[in-house]
Amino acid sequence: MRAATRAAYPCRMRAKHVFGLTPWGRFFIDAMEALADEGRLARGRSYAGNGAVLELELKGGLARARVAGNYRPFYTVAIRFEPLPPGQASVVRDEVDADPLFRGRIAAGELPAGFLERLEAAGVSLLPSRWSDMARSCDCPDSGDPCKHMAAVYYVIAQEIDRDPYGLFRLRGVDLGAADTGGSARPDVPVRAVPDPVPVRLVTPWPDPEGLSDPLARAGPLNPYVAAIPAMLPPSRGLAPFDLRVVCTAFYHRAAALCPELLAPRPSDAMDGPRSRTFAAARFDVVPASDGSPRGLRIASPVLGPRGEAGPLAASRLFAACGERDGSASYRFLRAFFSAARSLASACAFTPDVREEGGRFSVVWKPARFLSDVDALLSALEPVATAPSPAGDSKTVPDRRSTIDTLAAAFLTELAGAVGFTLGSVRENGDPAARALFGTRSVPCAAPGQRALPGALDAWLSVYDMAADRTPLELKVSASRTAASGGEEPSYRLSASVVGEDGSRTALRRAARSGGKGAADALAFAALLSNFVPALGRLGVDAFAELDGKELADFVVDAAPLLRRFGVALVLPKELRRLATPKPALRATRKAGLVSYLDMATAFSFDWTVAIGDERLSPAEFSALLESGLRLVRWRGEWVRLDPGEAARVLARVSARKAPGAMEALRTALSGDAEADGELGAAVDFLVGPGRLAADEAPVPPSLLATLRPYQERGYRWMLGNFERGLGCLLADDMGLGKTVQTIAAILALKESGRLEGGALVCAPASLLTNWERELGRFAPSLSLCLYYGHARRRKPADVTLTSYETWIRDRKKTAGVEWSLVALDEAHYIKNPDSARAKAIKAVKAERRLALTGTPVENNLAELWSVFDFALPGYLGTLARFSAEYRGPIEIDRSEASADALRKAIAPFIMRRLKTDAAVAADLPDKIVVDEYAELTLEQAALYEAVASEGLGNVSSAGAESRLGLVLALITALKQASNHPRNYDKESSGTSERSGKSRLLVALLESAFEAGERVLVFSQYVEMLDVLAGIVRDELGVEPYLLHGGMTKRRRDEQVDRFQSERGPGVFLVSLKAGGVGLNLTAATRVVHYDLWFNPAVENQATDRAFRIGQSRNVFVHRLITRGTIEERIDAMIASKRELSELTVRSGESWIAELGDDELRDLVALRR
């Protein structure tokens, strides 16, 4: 019996064939070596190592084998082991029954090596002590005993025992797992069957779910399991020449380190607005592998590259790159699914399982559903799951849960392969178990010595299945001595109970002796948990287990959170339920008075301390506290949790040599990342508190020729409040809520208070400059204006300088020395890419105050928010790398609610976001808001317009009275078409938006609407123009438009209307003004755009009312596109100034224009620059 205590057994011929890996296998080999000649055994080892044992069958105590021979293809070997005497078999069973938790370990597939010593001490001879105890034969001509063929079989049997230690007992007629047979071995025990790692329940396909809110909103973030999940595994005795548990631990840590890189979109995955909208609108199918394995599952869609399909990992990166929140049902499901999958990967919340088929086996990595937070995350996806494609001719598909689990397994298995984990040597990497676990292909297992490997690996991994099928347990920590007993420190003990269905509690040791399946399950689960709580191993016999200081800390700090996720009920004394934790504290000492944020750095000095409850420690005192090495300490009458990683981060932060600056101090105090001590809290309240600017201290400037709605007044005062304190800000109101007029009011207030000496720079997309110019002239005529744009641009002193992003980039060297009183960016998401030349040029502008305006502060990821804030409040959110580490990664990948909450608090004082659906806003809005949007003709359009006007006027002036009306109307039509788009006029040229100022403006409007998920109606008088717009929307915005005009059949018209009304997400319906004027109900639209004007308000209103109908529960925004300097602008001004005239005469359309004289007509149509 010396084998049980012997060191590593060096019995091997080739590096890749090692025998006697476990005490059980070594024990068998030692017993055979004691009986046989070393030379014969050496030849047998060589035979076994070279794969000469072709077949091996084990039935009870009989081993039959075929071994390759020199003179015949094979020789037949038979070896029979006699059963243990009844008395010794009874001793084996008694030893098992002596420790109830030992039975639990057996149920978990673990056979402790110490059991050999116990049997030896009890006088059990587990293996024969002489050859005569075995009946053996080989039909080879060798007369030796044993011959090399028999010796080879011995070593292969040892290899089988390495993988299945119970086989050693079955050879002697004892089945340790056969409680129902009294421990007697069945005559034929097959190799352990490996169940399907991802069971599938089939159902008939279900319809796509209706649009729902974010299914993961309430699921919460996952806890990190990088250490906990591999720690659940027992030592992997016999599976490989090394401990796979150690290797798996290394794999999980490498996977955690590589996940950010593996999950991040590649540069080729980047999507602009059009591509992302096309991607979101597409239909995606989940195509299962032909063999049903998660390996080989694909995601199919026309938008997934030339092949129209992608693996789950590549698809996940594309979904991460697409910023659209809405889209097709399959897009919404997969978007949510891949978000959850990335959380699983980042948290390392996945486990391996074995899949065997056709003499080969592989490992599938699947989500750890036995963890409550993982199960909640995946279950939240079920309501939005879309049905996968049936395989072949099948009429059934996996149900929702099976679909999600199979998808998750496919994603995680591909991810595990992408980690590219390798072991330390070629021999280790070539090991079959390691190849299956960390490779990307299946491994053969049909050869003798390998047949038991899949089952053995499955048994080793079955701890995860036991965690899923757990029996309800309750662990209770109670005080065995209180702190009041003679001034001594308190001590604690642990007890365990099995919780019945009726809520009753039965002590674990009593349940262990009660027998039955429930007791066996409880013991197996308790044995599993003893890997985390070693004291639990004593509770199969004892009522309590005293916990020393380290055991108490291990339980409270490490084990308790994990046990709760296993569904274990924990009962802790009050003092251990809420532990004090150290936290950085930032202290401010006043040096001077504080007037604005700009004074903060000189008004205060800042230094770090450590907060534990109400107490404060210096960095040196906290460092001394950590020197104890304990993770749970009693300090000043309370228990303090000192998580090593978190404590080290706190110490590193407060020990930094450089004192925090004003930006970091402000952000730290607002986000709650540190306690705000001393006068810092008062300073923060002064800068950003609600009392920083009373309402009556910021009246609306009387020179503003507009009446601000109540929510606009709040926005105006909020901007001024930030400006007063030297702080920039971000106004992120929905499109149409009046960001422009609020900004103009703030500029006027700055001027009237003498704080606009340097002037205001307003930077906007070129397509919006005309609107800014008109709005400034309309609402603030007292402000002088310089339009710094165009070939003849020249900067001159003015209250407001208006320019485009591209102009400012081109001229940045000319204007580098200018310092502005205010810089305002309209559509500030234009600088969302921090690495772009545009963002770098804009952020280099010198300004006393900064204002960012955008309706979409975040489109795709939080780096965009950082970039906009880096303009508005430079340095406030730190560097991009630090921001990504502290906020972006935890929020986007780990779904950390704590990080999201900290970021919300940090930016809340400097960002104002109102939606038109907000109750406080909607109450201030009229039901229908009409906005005139002005466009500039491109140079090409201007030349075309003048040529058309000149030719048309010549024709009219030479025409007779009878043909004048027709020529005038033809001229008006041609001018309107030229204003729309050159293609609308000539019918043949390119239809890109760049050729038309109005098309550019429409694209900008639609982009903002699409980013907000809105649906839009666009009216035009001309079907040809609708075709041009359809191409622009499709090719440049990536959205397939709906189309309706008089040339369509009723069936086609109805189909388009139904789809627009029922489908979700961004959408645009292009409607001819005549066809859309009557008989339609299009309440899905919240915005209406009149691309060209009918010059008849009644017609426009009738079309607008397609969206503003009974049943419309939202405000409708109407945008009228007008080309500046053209006939459109002048006729619109005539209608607006003479409303009664329009009602009397313009109702007949445009025929009244023909009554104008030649000079009046020339003045009306002339292009004014």
How do the helices and strands line up, and which of them pair or pack?
Elements: H1 23-33, H2 38-49, E1 53-59, E2 62-68, E3 74-81, H3 86-97, H4 100-107, H5 114-121, E4 134-138, H6 148-163, H7 166-171, E5 202-203, H8 228-231, H9 244-263, H10 273-281, E6 285-287, E7 298-300, E8 309-310, H11 312-321, H12 329-347, E9 350-357, E10 360-367, H13 372-379, E11 397-398, H14 400-418, H15 426-429, H16 432-438, E12 443-444, H17 453-468, E13 473-481, E14 491-499, E15 505-507, H18 508-512, H19 516-529, E16 545-547, H20 549-565, E17 569-571, H21 574-577, E18 583-590, H22 600-603, E19 604-612, E20 615-617, H23 619-626, E21 632-635, E22 638-641, H24 644-654, H25 662-671, E23 675-678, H26 680-688, H27 710-724, E24 729-731, H28 739-752, E25 760-764, H29 769-779, E26 785-788, E27 800-804, H30 805-810, E28 819-820, E29 822-825, H31 837-843, E30 846-847, E31 850-853, H32 862-872, H33 880-892, H34 897-907, E32 911-912, H35 919-922, E33 928-935, H36 939-957, H37 961-980, H38 982-986, H39 997-1011, E34 1015-1020, H40 1023-1036, E35 1042-1044, H41 1050-1062, E36 1067-1072, E37 1087-1090, H42 1097-1104, E38 1116-1123, ...
Parallel strand pairs: 13-17, 18-23, 24-31, 24-32, 25-27, 25-29, 26-27, 28-30, 29-31, 33-38, 34-36, 34-37, 35-36, 37-38
Antiparallel strand pairs: 1-2, 2-3, 3-4, 5-11, 6-7, 7-8, 9-10, 10-12, 13-14, 14-15, 14-16, 18-19, 19-20, 21-22
